[in-house]
Design brief:
The chain is an all-alpha fold. It is built from 8 helices and no strands. Helix 4 (39-59) packs antiparallel against helix 5. The structure holds heme C.
Length: 154
């Protein structure tokens, strides 16, 4: 009896405390780590910006600029170890496929850099198209499941 009473009091105080600090029931239910944007998303946004810089370089035939940006795409940063583990746990057996897409992006960006270094406009454009296809291929397979899983959107 005594134990029960203590437990009830503890529970009531906890709920009150949560209400006083302004925590909504939704916030209490959510795992804070799960709701926070992935570092991967920030890395992707950076990739997007660098792709825009490349199209600008192509328009101006500024091959030096393209050659400078391409390695930033090829050697894009990776998420921290903890996030990688969450991603691997989610992707499971498809990890090989995911890494394969990343490898294609890496190779296409290297080809882009080489073409730009040679000031070979045609080749810059065709390797840029290959690079865009590599982004698209991964997004078509993985983006929606990621967003659903890590952010709970449909
Ligand atoms: C190996 C798989 C993979 C490759 C390759 C890949 N992406 Fe992504 N990308 C993702 C995933 C997964 C998401 C969803 C991440 C999220 O919402 O947290 C994403 C999301 C994005 C977003 C949206 C970010 C936002 O704010 O919601 C952009 C922009 C993006 N990628 C750009 C690129 C570009 C540009 C390339 C190629 C140069 C590329 N990605 C290659 C997996 C990939």
């Amino acid at each position: 009896m005594q134990y029960r009473h203590t437990f009830k009091t503890f529970f009531a105080v906890s709920v009150l405390g949560a209400l006083l600090t302004g925590a909504s029931p939704q916030a209490l239910a959510d795992n804070a780590a799960e709701a926070k944007p992935l570092e991967l998303r920030r890395i992707m946004q950076e990739l997007g910006k660098n792709m825009q810089a490349v199209t600008d370089g192509i328009s101006r035939e500024d091959w030096a600029l393209v050659a400078r940006i391409a390695p930033l795409i090829a050697e894009h940063p990776q998420p921290p170890a903890g996030e990688k583990m969450r991603i691997m746990a989610f992707i499971g057996a498809d990890m090989g496929k995911f890494k394969g897409h990343d490898e294609k992006t890496h190779q296409a960006a290297q080809a882009l850099e080489q073409a730009a270094t040679r000031s070979d406009g045609q080749s810059v454009i065709s390797s840029f198209a290959t690079l865009q296809n590599s982004c698209l291929a991964c997004h078509q397979s993985f983006r929606k499941p990621f967003v659903e899983h890590f952010y709970g959107q449909r």
